[in-house]
Design brief:
Length: 134
């Protein structure tokens, strides 16, 4: 699995969705999606892009189970949080409110686990982080 490539691709998808939502809000004059738009760009685009750069810059072992777990919790968590937020805040017809709330909470909790794992990786793989000599 190419961690950098998969994270960059999901990041790009979130960037397009977030930019489209921002454009829609500006054009319509309605800021109804403001919080969802912000989370899609910060959690989806910015966080996943930052994680991709992390894997591109630092020599994290290719078959690290911790890294694989981190990547998938980041992707699943960002999707769950933003989709759950959208379903819960807009009270979509196809999903009961309880389902939307659980989807939102589980997505956010999964994303939180991803950030905790990222912090753990910063400690476990700290030997790979070195300043460049100038």
């Amino acid at each position: 699995m190419n961690r950098t490539k998969i994270l960059l691709r999901f990041s790009a998808l979130y960037a397009v969705i977030g930019a489209f939502m921002g454009s829609h809000m500006a054009g319509s004059g309605s800021y109804m999606f403001r919080a969802i738009h912000a989370h899609i760009l910060v959690v989806g685009w910015l966080s996943l892009f930052s994680f991709a750069i992390f894997y591109a810059v630092f020599a994290i072992p290719k078959h690290s189970k911790l890294a694989i777990f981190h990547v998938w919790t980041a992707i699943i968590g960002s999707f769950g949080l933003t989709t759950g937020m959208w379903m819960y805040n807009l009270k979509v017809d196809f999903a009961p409110e309880t389902f939307s709330m659980v989807f939102y909470i589980v997505g956010g909790s999964t994303l939180l686990i991803s950030f905790i794992v990222f912090g753990l990786m910063a400690v476990v793989f700290g030997k790979h982080f070195v300043d460049k000599q100038s």
